[in-house]
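QUALITY CONTROL LOG
STEP: pairwise intake check
CHECKER ROLE: data steward
CRITERIA: each record must contain a sequence immediately followed by its structure tokens, with no blank fields

ENTRY 1 OF 2
RESULT FIELD BELOW
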Amino acid sequence: MDLAGKKVAVLAEDNYQELELWYPYYRLQEAGAEVVLLGSGAKDQFHSKNGYPVRVDMDAADARAADFDAVVVPGGFAPDKMRTVPGMINLVKEMNDQEKVVAAICHAAWVLVSADVLKGKRATCFKNIKDDLVNAGAEYVDEEVVIDGNIITSRTPPDLPAFCRAIVEALA
């Protein structure tokens, strides 16, 4: 599928899960999308759980939902920090308000919880934060990828092929 002309934000913060950031990053580029890495503004480089670096292109506080077609939130323990960053939460909320693709995998569902975009939605996540989704008003579903309107969620790295396929199809 050709995603030329589409622009996707990928959020980054320390302790991100390597596969959950890099797999969508390169898969979306491969499909022709422009992929922009957004950080918390604290610095311009972040490190994964295993120390793998990622250099961000811009501060999430400077990003405007109107400039993007989708936002991807990778998991790991980074979402626990992301959910405290107003620029990231505001971007996810605005993307959802504009009915643009909001995709989260694993612990990234925490960001969707904090952005208050899950009420009445079907979603999945890493099993340990299932209660957080339910308490945020979502219906938890244990499937590799769950699509409810503009929201796409997955559980863990083995779900990445289905997760990325769903994002590409939603943008095509």
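ENTRY 2 OF 2
RESULT FIELD BELOW
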Amino acid sequence: MTGRGPLLIGVLSVQGSFAEHVESITRLGARAREVRLPQHLEGLDGIVLPGGESTTLLKLIDAFDLRKPLQDVIAEGMPALGTCAGVIILAQRVSSHNMQTLGILDITVARNAFGRQSESFEEDLAFEGFDGPQFRGVFIRAPKIEACGNGVHVLSRLQDGTVAACRQLDVLATSFHPEFVEDLRVHQYFLAIASDRRNISNTCT
């Protein structure tokens, strides 16, 4: 990982809302790199898995030989942020469909559990550690986080108690789309995770 200068965050850019994540990251003063090939993972301080169509994203991850490189760098400690479909890609278990995910995050998810595109919704969310107003969560064909393992910390819930955001070590997941609002606090939170990880790595080298 890079040790000096602004953080360098990769954004999986094979499909989905990657451009919006790139914009959010650069607005916060970090550098963003679009990731389409394994070599694009080199030197990153973190990786974002964006919203999109989860089955298509997984097919393209395999088509570009990204599956094992992604699994390896995250297993080695690279911070990861998964949003909407990105949560499905990270999850260990998908209850609603037979999908070969990356199997990283100890959660169970159901794909498109809130309904079709026409049933998309927004809700104000209390998010642990955020000052100021609640965060406006945008849920578009969102997955439902049905269960979290013992090592997963819940950061936000919908009013009905459904998990909306969680964290396991340096892996952050939101079932909503933080890249579709002006509020940058979710990305800021992720950059803080990446910065802490880089500092630890520098101390150990």
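INTAKE CHECK: passed for both entries
DESCRIPTIVE NOTE, ENTRY 2: Helices lie at 18-27, 54-63, 67-75, 85-90, 185-204.
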